[in-house]
From TrEMBL:
InterPro entries in the record: ClpP/crotonase-like_dom_sf (IPR029045), Enoyl-CoA_hydra/iso (IPR001753), Enoyl-CoA_hydra_C (IPR014748), Enoyl-CoA_Hydratase/Isomerase (IPR051683)
Keyword Disulfide bond: no
Family: Belongs to the enoyl-CoA hydratase/isomerase family.
GO molecular function: isomerase activity
Protein name per Swiss-Prot or TrEMBL: Enoyl-CoA hydratase/isomerase family protein
Organism: Aquipseudomonas guryensis
Lineage: Bacteria, Pseudomonadati, Pseudomonadota, Gammaproteobacteria, Pseudomonadales
SUPFAM superfamilies documented for this protein: ClpP/crotonase
Keyword terms of this UniProt record: Isomerase
Superkingdom of this protein's organism: Bacteria
GO biological process entries: isoprenoid catabolic process
PANTHER family associated with the record: ENOYL-COA HYDRATASE, POLYKETIDE BIOSYNTHESIS ENOYL-COA HYDRATASE PKSH-RELATED
Amino acid sequence: MAELPNCQALLLERVEGVLYVTLNRPDSRNAMSLAMVEELRAVLRAVRGDQAVRALVLRGAGGHFCAGGDIKDMAGARAKGGDAYRELNRAFGSLLEEAQYAPQVLVAVLEGAVLGGGFGLACVSDIAIAHQGAKFGLPETSLGILPAQIAPFVVKRIGLTQTRRLALTAARFDGAEALRLGLVHFSEADDQAVVDRLAECLQQIRQCAPGANAATKALLLATETENLGSLLDHAAGQFAEAVLGSEGVEGTMAFMQKRKPKWAE
């Protein structure tokens, strides 16, 4: 079991194979400070090879997910010049990359403000559950800046046409519209419905073998970058390894014996 880092801007709780990661700066609607970015990256590194962590649930404290970048960090970077801004911005892009490729299933629970950086985090989740009353948006251009690190992930999530509209108008929209756009998978009417949907999704994840899930996630992401023929060749080799591996043997035996596999017990 991986040792988790000490965090000031995050709350961490491990329950039944799920690591709950809560952005914990409620006074600023969980604005994304550089310290929070580095803590999130440290958590992802810590659990990367830990198959005991089946899923990561990312949410915010105090009724908001994340209201975007931290203005105090930006003000501090101004005194240091352009390189400081570049490094600050790129660090968040690195977080998004690392979250995108985490071997665990990443579940985002989206309530309240889901803006800027919070919007970006939503776009790298495997499963996104929104409260219908959540407020989504890309406000950067209304502040005279641009969604530099977020934009590629938003385009991958909802397509270029819709991203252009949202980024160039800074329009705000709710969970129902987020569902229509394909940004989220579920839009729930109230707090209890969000809780129930999260429990249902986690139960479904527990039915899946952790190694098979990690390899499948990597395969799906590779479809965006790899040549089809080489991708299929590689996938065939992975399939053979999986069938002969411990999870494949256990899954097959469980099916034949009409019982749950060990990872689902």
